[in-house]
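Subject: mismatched residue count in predicted assembly?

I count 505 residues in my input, but I want to confirm that the predicted structure covers every chain. Input:
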Amino acid sequence: MKTKSQLTDFYYKDLYPKLQELEERRIKLKKKLLSIGSFFAILVLLFLFYVQTNHLPLDTLIFGGAATLFIFAFFYRYLTKDYALDFKYAIIEPLIKEIQSNFHYSPNQHILKEYFLHAHFFTTEPDRVSGNDYVHGSIDGVKIKFSDFHAEVEHKDSRDKQTWSTLFQGIFAVTEFPKYFQGSTVVLPDSAENIFGEYLGTLLQKTNFSREQLIKMDNPAFEKEFVVYGTDQIEARYILTPAFMEKILKLKKRSNVPLYLSFRSNTMYLGIAYNKDMFEPSVFRSLLEYKISMEYIDTLHMMMGLVDELKLNQKLWSKL
Amino acid sequence: MSTPMILLIVFLIILVLMYNSLVAKKNQVENIFASIDTQLKKRYDLIPNLVASVSKYMEHEKSILEDVTKLRSEAMQPNISEMQKIALDAKMSAALGSIMVAVENYPELKANENVIHLQHTLSEVEEQISAARRAYNQAVTDYNNAIEQIPTNFMANAMGYTRKEVFEIPQNERANINVGELFNK
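Triage response: the counts match. Full output below for your records.
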């Protein structure tokens, strides 16, 4: 696999003509968006003035604000759509092919909802899922696929107004796992132990009835970051060997956001909760900026290197 | 109901809960030990085959092979205690490890398909055993904590529960003997 610095070279050398073209479009787009934005800002100010002078109820203001925001979001989406898609075909796809030529990319697809449900990261089911940037392929015969994934839950307030809250947003990956096991094991970010301290947190985790047995791991650093639930105490440790736990910790450090892992039916599910849509082109900052380019390169490099990094390509004997 | 009566009932419920949690912890330890036992047996079953495959070539390591065979027959005896099993397991792991290292010196063995298969199977069993050992240690730690911490220690005393030993995982074994990796060198 190509190293990160090789990819950076590729980004700034081979992709440079396309980048420049996109960069010109980006600047025009930014101007357009800024002028529309200021138009809306003036509209809101006028509206505010109107509400003030006529002593209208506060609800009108909230409604008006929400409507403006919605319309602006619509404009933003509409105007950036083509630019975003061209960016993905011109930049993201070549980057993926450069890392591993046998990988496929579909910017408008995402991993199926069934996989997310099967992973069982959450005990509540999402009411709506969306996503994009579906990448799939295989490394050393180990299949891997990932995409941006957004799972949301619907809420109704007292006035029957519909609102959505995010359950998970980030990259969701599905890969084959080289060990044979029967039950299921989930590794979740440890929020209870962080909020309530070790003793009370563990007590709360133990009495979590919506989950399987609590499995206490023998790596203190891992135990501090994650909580493990599973159907079998031994199987969970068979999957989470000391070396594998270290690798997960390294991944956590590298991504620096909450990680969700699940092991079921010889498959590993991994959720990296970036809490934003990844691989989208930047509109307000230059595509040539190092920090912007590194985000694309680093994320792709990490995701496509997962099989090597976690040593999922070292096939053990599948069944005894 | 009078207050003393209620207090008595609450007290009894607490006693029952404490009793049950101690029994559950003890059974957890026993359950996991049973799984270790199964895995250890699986490994012992592989040994005659391994010894037969390598003994033709390994002239200088005859003593290790004899040791392994001896350890196996000791371990296969009925009625040996948990502690003895634990001790035998440690010796066995070390002896098998040195056989695997020795295989490196024999190109014929390194290329032998039967030996390769055995190595893979052994390393798989080794992983299972290591997982079971870690689960056992955690169960024993929970059990030992319960019988030493207030208030369950009073109950444990009355029930005659005593501390259990954990598996010592020796330093050289903590870096798991990765048979596959040895082989790739």
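Residues 58-99 of chain A form the longest helix (42 residues). Marking this ticket as 'not a bug'.
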